[in-house]
Amino acid sequence: xxxxxxxxxxxxxxxxxxxxxxxxxxxxxxxxxxxxxxxxxxxxxxxxxxxxxxxxxxxxxxxxxxxxxxxxxxxxxxxxxxxxxxxxxxxxxxxxxxxxxxxxxxxxxxxxxxxxxxxxxxxxxxxxxxxxxxxxxxxxxxxxxxxxxxxxxxxxxxxxxxxxxxxxxxxxxxxxxxxxxxxxxxxxxxxxxxxxxxxxxxxxxxxxxxxxxxxxxxxxxxxxxxxxxxxxxxxxxxxxxxxxxxxxxxxxxxxxxxxxxxxxxxxxxxxxxxxxxxxxxxxxxxxxxxxxxxxxxxxxxxxxxxxxxxxxxxxxxxxxxxxxxxxxxxxxxxxxxxxx
Length: 340
Known about the structure:
Pfam family, one: Phage_integrase
Largest sheet: 3 strands, antiparallel
Domain Core-binding (CB): 15-106
CATH superfamily of the largest domain: Intergrase catalytic core
Distance between the termini: 103 Å
Number of domains: 2
CATH topology of the largest domain: hpI Integrase, Chain A
Shape: globular
Helix content: 40-55%
Radius of gyration: 27 Å
GO biological process, one term: DNA integration
Oligomer: single chain
Structural class: mainly alpha
Protein name: Tyrosine recombinase
GO molecular function: DNA binding
C-alpha cells in the first residue's frame, strides 16, 4: 500500500490568533457560558481573525487600537449579498465579541494591553417589535389548527402555551412533562436565557389544552426513550427542532390572514402588550418574560397604544371638531364646534 504523502495541515502557532481563539472558547465552556454565547463568539471572533490575517496580522499582539477601529469601519461599510448594510445590532454583536476576546487575552497576559477596551461602540437602536397581535387576532391564529387531527391538537396546545406564558421558542422546546404543575397553574422554565430558571403562570385555558394533548396525543407520539420526558413531541417522538417550530407557528399566523407576519416571538410580544393594556404592572411582566433589565420590558409600554389613545381622545383639543360630514352639512365653513 502506498502511503499518503500529502502535506499535513500546519499546526497553528501557540501564540497565534487561531490557537488563542480556541483557548478562549474552551475557557467560555468551562465557565458555563451558554452554547449560544460560545457559538456567537466562535463566529464573530472568527470573522475578525479572517479579516486580520488577510491584512498580514497573525498574532493578537500585532493588533492595535487603530486596527480595531479600522475593522469597525470595515463592518460599517460591509454589504451583504443583497446589497444591504449590516444592521447596527449585528455590528455591535461582532465588535462586542472581539472586545470580550481581547479583554480575556489581556487578563491572561497573552497581550500587554486590550486594544479594544476604549472602542466607541455604535449607538444601539431601540426598535419596537415588528408586529403585535390584538386579542381578536390572537384568537384567530390559535383557532387555525384542526383539533380533530392529533398533531393539530398538539399544535393548539403549543400555541396556547406560547400565548399564555410568553416564553421563548427554545424555552418551550426544552419543557419537560414534570415542569408543568397543573394544580398550581405554573410552568418551570429551566435554564432560560442567561442560564436562569424561572417559574411562570399558565392560564386555565392553556392548561386544559395541554392536559388534553397529554392524555390523547402524547402517548401515541412516544417512540423509545428518546423523548421520554419531553413535553411537546414531534411525529418522530423527539423534541422540536427550532427551525421546524418556527415554520409551524408562522404557517398558522399566515393562515389566519391577519395581515401580520411572525412566529413564536409574536406571541411573546402580544402576551406582554395585552397584559400591560389589561393593567399588569411592568415589573410583573419583566419577571414573567425573564428580562434581566427593566429597560428591555419597557419597550412594551410604547407598543401598548390603547391607553395612550384613550388619553389622546380625552384631552387633545382636536376632539372638539365635528366630523367632516357634519361640517359639509353645515355649509363647509369648518368653524362650528372648534375652539376659538
